[in-house]
Amino acid sequence: MAFENTLVYLGHDGDTLPDLVQRFCSVRGLRLLPVESAQTVISLVNRSYPACIVLDARNQGDAVVELCSRLKSDAFTGIVPVVMLAAPDAKELAAEGLEAGADEVLSEPGPERENWLRFELALRRASRDVSVHPTTRLPGTFQIEREIGERIHTGEEFAVCYADLDSFKEFNDRYGYNNGDRVILLVSRILRDLVRALAPGGFVGHIGGDDFIFIIHPRFIETCCDQIIQVFDELIPFQYEEDDRRAGYFMGKDRRGTLYRVPLMTLSIGIVTNQLHAFSHTAEASELAAEMKGYAKTLPGSVFVVDRRQLSPRDRVVSATAPSEGES
After folding, report:
1. pTM for the complete prediction?
2. Long-range contacts made by residues 168-174, C-beta under 8 angstroms, separation at least 24?
3. Most buried of 47, 91, 111, 268, CB within 10 angstroms?
4. What tens digit of pLDDT does each residue of 150-195 get?
5. Can you give the three-state secondary structure of 244-303, one letter per residue?
6. Eight-class DSSP state of 241
7. CA angle at residue 180 from 176 to 184, to 5 degrees?
8. Within a 13 Å sphere around the CA of 300, how many CA atoms are in the beta-carbon half?
9. In 176-220, which residue ranges form alpha helices assigned H by DSSP?
10. What crossing angle do the helices spanning 221-235 and 177-198 adopt, rounded to 10°?
């Protein structure tokens, strides 16, 4: 099922589907998926990102507000637009819905044209405010910068982890972009599922191509990155044809036409934290993480390296130090 073209509607058992929701799906070309429990909504969103979630609060107000708050407080599900339906006289419920993070609250029944426009604008705002990669549906650079900026502003401890695939271009050249996209989607799922499971409050974004950023608390670095690398190394060989998988490489050509061995893809993760660096803006964190990622790519196999330097900005031109024991 293509969830990115699906509108999930949570209603009360026995409720009639609102005409507004049915017509909106028809005009927008969205598949309407009615469900009857909050747990089903959460399960669906955990597997993929639907185009929109409509929560009908007319018969279960408190439960719907609680579900909305849960969805919007999670970095992974918060990017999905949520529209709540409330009775026209439920002013307090409407306010609670907006406070919980709903992108829009519509009166149902209510003014038809106004409701339609508010519905449409809620989806447009969500698309504009959080650009997502079409393959992975992960937040893009705008949201990544905002996440780093918010952590700098609050002063909480955080680690910016820059993940990049090694030998991905050669894989793409040999196997084609469709298989390349499949690998990118696989990596996005590994990062999303493991960061979510092992690093509460974590965030995963997709810069583009084979570059990803995930942001976690420093205490989760070792556990999270160890698991990411382990799962990646277990699954990535199966993206190759059997002969290449058995050999552990395939033959590629460089720009001069010379044959050389291209190893199976590995994953390099460069990590910087604000435990030793007092970042004043997002560019400092992202640039230093990119530097550490570049260093990680010089090491064999799938690795993660953590920057332990305590340097002033002018000293950061010095090459990254080798990872300490247990950091790669």
Report:
1. 0.69
2. 168/209, 168/210, 168/265, 170/252, 170/262, 171/239, 171/240, 171/262, 171/265, 173/252, 174/250, 174/252, 174/262
3. 268
4. 899 888 999 999 999 999 999 998 999 899 999 999 999 999 999 9
5. HHHHCEEEEECCCCCEEEEECCEEEEEEEECCCCCCCCHHHHHHHHHHHHHHHCCCCCCE
6. -
7. 170
8. 1
9. 177-198
10. 150
Give per-residue pLDDT as tens, 212-236.
999 999 999 999 999 999 999 999 9
Q: Determine the Cα–Cα distance for residues 246 and 262; give it in Å rounded to an integer.
A: 13
Q: What is the percent of the chain where pLDDT is above 90?
A: 39
Q: Mapping DSSP to helix (H, G, I), strand (E, B) and coil, where does residue 104 land?
A: strand
Whether the link from the prior residue into 313 is cis, omega within 30° of 0, is no
Query: Phi first, then psi: what are they for 90, rounded to 5°?
Result: -90, 65
pLDDT of residue 78 exceeding 90: no
Please give the structure tokens belonging to residue 157: 């401890």
Give the bridge partners for 261, in sequence order. 251
Which helix (H) or strand (E) is 23 found in, with range?
Answer: helix 19-28
- Give me 1's structure tokens: 């099922």
Predicted confidence at residue 3, as pLDDT, reads 63
